[in-house]
């Protein structure tokens, strides 16, 4: 199992750990409600070092990544990022990816459901070595600063210029004697930033960031709390619905695909399924049932007939009810309907429009920062 | 499935089909209607549309469904589904008047 370079400092802060797809992640720091409150209302610091991280020279990196990933890497302008995915030969998603164009280099950040060795095999099979791909997964840390006040923390750390960065952009900022890669990207629907830095300065950067979030009454967060935040914000989560559904079309990830590209990993299978027509897709659901009974795998019924299945769930503190995602046949995959959970006489479950929340970060104006 | 549920589906499907076709045409989106999941974030994440696109969506909704999205109702533009909810709600209120 790959251990985070920040393991010891995280443990000293009270973090608990678990394993996910061959990497260690922080499973808990505080009560889930406290961590949730940090990000929704203040700011949270999270160790995302479990992600697989690579750099590659722009030439031939563009061609390499463009033939590998579903999105159009060639169209990513300098300073911007692309959110796309990597599929296997069967067209099933195996990694949720960011590609950043940082002038003469491209940066690939992956959240994958395969371990480092399996991902490396796939990259090698597509010519990673010839393309000059450098694996910096172990040599770098990746910190996430997310939350309603995240902008204030990064402004304190790196200056007011950070406020002008659009969503999905990359910039270099000095931290001490080292330039670190700074990404405006997050999946909580609040302000979000990722900091990629060499592990030699990892603990120093972590300490500065933690001081920064605590200044705004925030704190350290687990990776686990991001599962709930992503579902509330209807951000794709490869570790929840992505693990059990896998088909990017059923997951609604067509926006990550450039259908005009000649090919990419898994494209033949994906294009064939697209031509055949979508038969099922995931949509939002909400119920008053407690979370213990509202879990992935439970059937959704129309009368005595099971028509769908729950694929991901969480409790939404904002809505004070459980929400989730269910896989429905497309002819009934519409918001505003009511079905039963677990059987014909089961409790009601409603199909809903996502995202069901209005994040506070969408209410703040640049002039107020 | 009850008749009421079938009616709800038909009404929603009709609005979604119109909206998707209009959005693809007006915003020159490189997708088929089936490619656009109704919950995709329209602005920022997801489709990544900008503020000019948002104005075009507001005009599109006004022209296609006869309902105006007020300036302060930016939350309506979060996804196709939130726009459809808004259109259905406005139409139902019109029907009550």
Question: Could you walk me through the main structural features you see in this protein, from its secondary elements to its overall organization?
Answer:
The complex is a heterodimer of chains A (369) and B (97). Helices cover 24% and strands 33% of the residues of chain A. Chain A is of the alpha+beta class. Chain A has a 6-stranded mixed β-sheet. Chain A has a 6-stranded antiparallel β-barrel with strand order 14-17-16-15-18-19. The termini of chain A are far apart. The mean pLDDT of chain A is 97. Chain B has 97 residues and is mainly α. Chain B has one domain: Non-ribosomal Peptide Synthetase Peptidyl Carrier Protein, Chain A (Orthogonal Bundle). Chain B has 3 helices and no strands. The longest helix of chain B has 24 residues, at 3-26. Chain B is globular and about 40 Å long.
How would you sum up this structure in a few lines?
The complex is a heterodimer of chains A (369) and B (97). Chain A is an alpha+beta fold and 369 residues long.
Descriptive terms for the model:
heterodimer, A: 369 residues, alpha+beta, Gyrase A, domain 2, Elongation Factor Tu (Ef-tu), domain 3, six-stranded mixed sheet, six-stranded antiparallel barrel, 10 helices, 19 strands, 33% strand, globular, B: 97 residues, mainly alpha, Non-ribosomal Peptide Synthetase Peptidyl Carrier Protein, Chain A, 3 helices, 58% helix
Describe the secondary-structure layout.
The complex is a heterodimer of chains A (369) and B (97).
Chain A: H1 7-12, E1 16-20, E2 23-28, H2 32-41, E3 44-47, E4 52-57, H3 58-68, E5 81-87, E6 93-102, E7 105-112, H4 116-125, H5 128-131, E8 134-135, E9 140-147, H6 150-158, E10 169-175, E11 178-184, E12 191-198, H7 202-215, E13 219-221, H8 224-233, H9 241-244, H10 267-276, E14 280-287, E15 299-302, E16 305-316, E17 321-329, E18 338-341, E19 348-352
Parallel strand pairs in A: 3-13
Antiparallel strand pairs in A: 1-2, 3-9, 4-7, 4-8, 5-6, 6-7, 9-12, 10-11, 11-12, 14-17, 14-19, 15-16, 15-18, 16-17, 18-19
Helix pairs in contact in A: 2-8, 6-7
Chain B: H1 3-26, H2 51-65, H3 80-96
């Amino acid at each position: 199992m790959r251990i985070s370079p920040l393991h010891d400092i995280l443990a000293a802060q009270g973090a608990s750990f678990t394993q996910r797809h061959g990497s260690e992640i922080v499973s808990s720091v505080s009560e889930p409600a406290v961590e949730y409150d940090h990000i929704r209302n203040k700011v949270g610091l999270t160790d995302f070092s479990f992600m697989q991280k690579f750099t590659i020279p722009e030439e031939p990196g563009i061609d390499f990544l463009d033939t590998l990933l579903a999105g159009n890497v060639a169209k990513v302008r300098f300073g911007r990022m692309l959110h796309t995915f990597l599929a296997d030969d069967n067209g099933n998603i195996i990694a949720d990816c960011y590609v950043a164009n940082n002038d003469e280099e491209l940066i690939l950040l992956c959240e994958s459901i395969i371990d480092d060795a399996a991902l490396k095999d796939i990259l090698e099979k597509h010519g990673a070595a010839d393309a000059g791909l450098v694996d910096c997964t172990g040599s770098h840390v990746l910190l996430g600063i997310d939350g309603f006040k995240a902008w204030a923390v990064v402004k304190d750390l790196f200056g007011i210029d950070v406020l002008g960065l659009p969503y999905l952009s990359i910039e270099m900022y000095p931290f001490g004697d080292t330039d670190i890669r700074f990404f405006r990207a997050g999946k909580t629907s609040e302000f979000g930033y990722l900091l990629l830095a060499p592990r030699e300065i990892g603990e120093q950067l972590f300490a500065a960031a933690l001081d920064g979030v605590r200044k705004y009454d925030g704190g350290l967060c687990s990776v686990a709390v991001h599962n709930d935040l992503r579902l509330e914000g209807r951000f794709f989560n490869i570790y929840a619905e992505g693990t059990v559904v896998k088909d990017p079309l059923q997951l609604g990830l067509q926006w990550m695909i450039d259908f005009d590209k000649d090919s990419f990993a898994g494209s033949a299978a994906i294009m064939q399924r697209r031509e055949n027509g979508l038969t099922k897709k995931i949509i939002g659901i909400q119920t008053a049932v407690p979370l213990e009974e509202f879990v992935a795998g439970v059937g959704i019924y129309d009368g005595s007939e099971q028509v769908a299945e729950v694929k991901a769930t969480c409790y939404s503190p904002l809505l004070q009810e459980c929400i989730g995602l269910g896989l429905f046949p497309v002819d009934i995959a519409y918001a505003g309907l009511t079905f039963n959970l677990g059987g014909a006489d089961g409790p009601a479950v409603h199909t809903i429009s996502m995202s069901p929340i209005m994040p506070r970060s969408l209410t703040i104006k640049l002039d107020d920062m | 499935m009850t008749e009421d549920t079938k009616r709800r589906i038909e009404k929603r499907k009709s609005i979604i089909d119109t909206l998707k076709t209009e959005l693809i045409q007006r915003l020159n989106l490189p997708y088929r209607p089936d490619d656009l999941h109704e919950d995709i974030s329209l602005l920022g994440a997801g489709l990544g549309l900008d503020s000019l696109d948002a104005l075009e969506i507001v005009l599109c909704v006004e022209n296609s469904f006869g309902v105006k999205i007020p300036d302060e109702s930016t939350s309506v533009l979060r996804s196709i589904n939130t726009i459809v909810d808004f259109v259905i709600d406005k139409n139902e209120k019109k029907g009550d008047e």
